[in-house]
Design a protein that fits this description.
By secondary structure, the chain is an alpha+beta fold. The protein contains one helix and four strands, in the order ββββα. It has a four-stranded antiparallel β-sheet with strand order 1-2-3-4, covered by helices on one side.
Length: 79
């Protein structure tokens, strides 16, 4: 049986940044992270491979849109 080395990990972060995102792995190597930062109200892509095809990047973005809610979490200023 061959093990699938491609995967997506959904991860939240509340340390240096506050939000949730996806990490995309191909052949067991992290190639991209797309992150929704609820404090800064931003969505960012970080790539870990020098060259990524447009088709793969579009697939990563679609995975992010499918797995992560688009709306930012609104924090009450008194929290």
């Amino acid at each position: 049986m061959k093990e699938n080395k491609d995967r997506v990990i959904i991860a939240s972060d509340v340390n240096e940044r506050d939000g949730i995102g996806v990490e995309i792995y191909r052949n067991d190597k992290l190639i991209a992270e797309i992150f929704r930062d609820d404090t800064k109200k931003t969505r960012t892509i970080r790539v870990f491979k020098e060259n990524i095809s447009l088709e793969l990047m579009e697939e990563c973005i679609q995975t992010f849109k499918k797995e992560i809610p688009w709306e930012f979490i609104e924090y009450d200023e008194t929290d």
